[in-house]
Amino acid sequence: MNPLRRYLSDFISLIFPELCAACHASLVAGEDLICTDCLYNLPYTNLHQQPDNIVAQQFWGKLPVQAAYALYFFNKGGKVQKMMHHFKYDNMQRIGNILGAVAGIQLAENEVFKTADYIIPVPLHKKRLKERGYNQSACFADGLAEKLNAKVEVDNLVRSVATKTQTHKSRFARFENMKEVFVVANPDKLINKHVLLVDDTVTTGATLEACGIELLKVPGLTLSIATIAYAV
Asked: What percent of the chain has a predicted confidence (pLDDT) above 70?
């Protein structure tokens, strides 16, 4: 950056400082959307080396997954919730890329996750995608792919029905709301492949379960799950 442009950038930052998406502190030079302190100190789950972790337990008896994981714990009113709100509703798409890369470094150490052939984000309905402009789960998938040497498939799992919000629904109601919502468009491409299904947050796991049921109809497909956050 030439000196004049750097001066102008510093001046603008002084008047309109960029703030951390998690803690709202002013960012310093070299920081991108999330401050260094938050990147180190957000509530990491460290579940990537625990096969029978709390995320995996969400799917016991419901969905046969090879491995399951979340990067952070999500507490109401906490920094992760604030960051996820900015990510989903304030057009901060790069948060997904950044956190995907952070998660990918962890998952590359895991013997199961590093064998994934494809990363498939939970899809948005085309109406919701048009409204928001991007799929936050796909942003996370792109960041993961950089570290896991896997390909992102964004058009193979399709949400064919626009569902109502899941907020305040029980797990059973959430699952019923998601039944027959998803379709695998090109199952032949996924035969005998290891698919990593990803979403932004896992609460009850109903949406991931509904997606997983459809994916596992593909012959020989094995399934793992990763999310940015696990709601506690």
From this structure: 85
pTM score, whole prediction: 0.87
Average pLDDT, stretch 154-168? 76
Which pLDDT tens digit goes with each residue over 45-80?
999 989 999 999 999 999 999 999 999 999 999 999
Whether 120 and 197 have beta carbons less than 8 Å apart is answered as: yes
In which band, very low, low, confident or very high, does the pLDDT at 174 lie, cut at 50, 70 and 90? low
How far apart CA 87 and CA 164 sit, in angstroms, is 20
Class assignment of domain 42-231? alpha beta
How many Å separate Cα 204 from the centre of its chain?
A: 15
Quick one: angle between helices 206-215 and 171-178, nearest 10?
40
- How far CA 93 is from CA of 83, 88, 89, 115, in Å, comes to 11, 8, 9, 26
Q: What is the per-residue pLDDT for 8?
A: 45
* Contact indicator for 229, 200 with CB cutoff of 8 Å: yes
Task: Supply the DSSP symbol for 161.
Answer: S
Residues of the chain within CATH 3.40.50.2020 domain(s) are: 42-231
Contacts of 68 (CB under 8 A, 6+ apart): 53, 55, 56, 58, 59, 224, 225, 226
Q: Is 73 exposed, middle or buried (0-12, 13-18, 19+ CB in 10 A)?
A: middle
